[in-house]
Structures are given as C-alpha cells and as structure tokens.
Design a protein that fits this description.
Pfam families: DUF416. By secondary structure, the protein is mostly helical. About 75% of the residues lie in helices and about 0% in strands. It has one domain (about 5-185): YP_001051499.1 domain like (YP_001051499.1 fold like, Up-down Bundle), CATH 1.20.1590.10. It starts with a helix and ends in a 10-residue tail after the last helix.
C-alpha cells in the first residue's frame, strides 16, 4: 500500500484514535532513544518514558497534564545531530520529535500532529537505512526503491497498516482499547528499527 493511501486512511480515523495510533508509534520509537542515551551518556530516557506515560493516561482516563512543561523537559534531552557523529542520533531525535508531536496534538486537539508521528516513524526507518545499510547506493531513485523494498521498511508499513485496520474496526476510544494497544506495542518486543526492547 502506498504511503499516501495509508496517510489518507489515518486521516479518516476519529482524532482520538489517531492519537492512540500516534502513542503506539511513539512506544515503538522509544527504545531507539534509550539505546542512543546508553551508548553516548546523553539525555534521559525517563523523560520520554514519563511524557509518553502521561499521554497514555490522557487517552485512557482523560487525565489532564501540563504539556508545555513536558515539552520543555523533552527539549532539554533532545540531542543535536551536529554534536554526535553516530548514526543513532537520528532515531533518537525522531523519538523526541514524534513524542513532541503527540503532545502537541493532545494539547491543541490537532489531528494533523498525530499524522506527523506516522510520517516521523516511517522517516526514521528510511533515514536509518539511507545512512546505514544502503548508504553505498549513490543513485537517488535506486536508493529510494531499495529503501521501500527493504524488510525493515516493509515491516514499518505493515505494522502501521495493521494498527489502522485494528483501530478502524474499534467501536471508539475507551480505557480497554488504550490498554490493549499499549500491550500490543510492548509485546512486539522490537523498536521500529528492529532493535530488541529489553
């Protein structure tokens, strides 16, 4: 399925379900930040964990929180690509950016911010492949095709598609659905880049 078609399907979901999809995708990006932080000594994975837990709580029980404060905390622990000459900095930035978009969507009730999380997650996979495994392919079109055909990108498309299918069939947002989606993300056991979640 083409990206545009997937994004269009996401747009047709209720905004609350788009938010739930975004939280699910953030959960899959979080381990990439933790691995970067552990290998470089920069940042604090607990900030991202706390911010995402606040988002899950908001979705489950509509618990209010100070999103501006979380955004400030997140900004402090977001790495700068100029400072770190390691491939892992880009997935770490994507995890922070994705969570920031989710928080923005929850604060401003802006569904377009939820769609951004889907794009950020796919972009993180593409960037990771482009700078890593597929970096020797010099032709842009050829590299783009190789990225789209790569099992990691195929899996990213499939997993987003499967969650959209699941949410399309859902009756609506409720505590049980939030709990189920959260457990699905944890039970998968790998990040969107294929790293094991410890």
């Amino acid at each position: 399925m083409a990206k545009k078609e997937l994004f269009q399907r996401i747009r047709t979901l209720e905004p609350s379900l788009q938010a739930l999809l975004a939280a699910y995708l953030c959960e899959r990006m979080l381990p990439n930040y933790r691995l970067f932080s552990e290998s470089t000594g920069f940042g604090d994975p607990k900030v991202l964990r706390g911010g995402l837990d606040a988002a899950w709580d908001k979705l489950a029980v509509n618990k209010g929180t100070d999103w501006q404060r979380w955004q400030e905390k997140l900004e402090v622990v977001t790495p700068n690509e100029q400072t770190f000459d390691v491939l892992g900095v880009f997935p770490a930035i994507a995890a922070c950016t994705g969570l920031s978009s989710l928080m923005q969507g929850l604060e401003e009730k802006d569904a377009s911010a939820y769609l951004d999380v889907s794009k950020i997650s796919q972009g993180a996979v593409a960037h990771f492949l482009e700078l890593g495994e597929l970096s020797e392919i010099s032709q842009h079109d050829e590299r783009a095709q190789a990225i789209d055909a790569h099992p990691l990108m195929q899996y990213e498309h499939d997993i987003q598609q499967a969650m959209v299918d699941f949410l399309t069939d859902a009756a609506g947002l409720n505590k049980e659905l939030v709990r189920e989606v959260r457990s699905i993300a944890r039970e998968e056991g790998i990040s969107n880049l294929g790293f094991a979640v410890s």
